[in-house]
Amino acid sequence: MKMNLQALNSYLQELNDLSNKPNHNPQEKRRFAFLQTACAAIRSGVAVEEVDEMYRTDTARRAGITLPAIERHSHEARGWQSYVENPEKRDVEGDPVARIGTYTALGFFVPTAWRDEAVWAMRAHDVLFDPDAVTFIKSTTAAPLPIPVPSDVASVASVVGESGSQTETDIAVPEHVVLGGFSYKTPRYVASIEAMQDLEQNLSVVNLFNKFSADRLARGIGRDLVVGDGVSKPLGLVTSLVGNGAPVVIAAGSNPNDGGGAAGYNSLGSQDFANAIEKLDDAYANSPKVAWLMNKKTLGYLESLLDKNGRPLRIVTYEQGWPCIMGIRVRICPSMDNVGNGSAPQYPVVLGDLSFWATRIVMGELSGVKVYREAPGLIENGLIGLRSYLQADGALLYDDWANAAQSPFVLIENAHS
To answer: Which of 54, 156, 254, 267 is most buried as measured by Cβ atoms within 10 A of its Cβ?
Structure first.
């Protein structure tokens, strides 16, 4: 934002006049302090209108006067307005040599707190973006990031015997995985140029765009973090577990609970969850990040299960407001399979220690918003297009598949009919 030199000069002149006075009354002291603050604020890019409004409000408050409310135009709104009014910049236009080393020249715009707001919205959508649930890594570049993934649950302490000899036991499996950054973009969001240039409507349009773009990013990235095939996208959690032979519980279904005759390929029952807990090593089952992963449809299905007398089975309980199954918290992952229908194997539930899953979000120069003006159907109709970009990757932090039975995750499978 450009500095208002005329206003700054006026404030500095007044400040100089007051500083030359030998004595100041209380009003002049307050004005002097304000001028010092105002000059520093204008130099940092704060608008003169906001500085004047701050002084006006403070003076009225001291006098006990309630001023009428006025519209406040935030820095973010003016930033969007300024950005939209600039010509579209494309990476195929102009001299490419002049753009080497600076991605901001490619037309990217990062609104105030956009990245943090986007990640927060993604966290609310999918547990794989929740720093409290998984190993969550924020980076400024998408450079390859090696992460050690040692496995040592097979090694345990032993009693110290008299005159016993010492033996050396290294960490069982010292391996590593490498995280990168795959680029994702949202579908183009179209708005009128007038709406973006009008500060009063600007933020309502921007807020709507931010809401939908964050949700679109969460659904696109989240899907790949669960079932991505690793080809030009992350290798997803379920794909990794199935491909490496992680422990699987073949569902027996709900028939033992309700006697309704449902089979294991199209239902789930309490025995399936008990079997999954039995298969998970205690070293992982006791982790503070152990959880069941499922989508909301599966959670709703489990809530509806009945016993043979038609009463609620109550396999899902609530502890401190969170859904739990057999004392382990349920976490929502929308991209997990639904309960199967027999047409193909489905994996509606995963149990495991989520600290063994890493999600990486790249908060770099290629993450932001780009405005499109010259695409067909836009400028001639008074429209602009907005599109969000974000880089992300994910990986399973376990590589000891020679001992797959000690995997930190267990799958529940609805087998093929």
So the answer is: 254
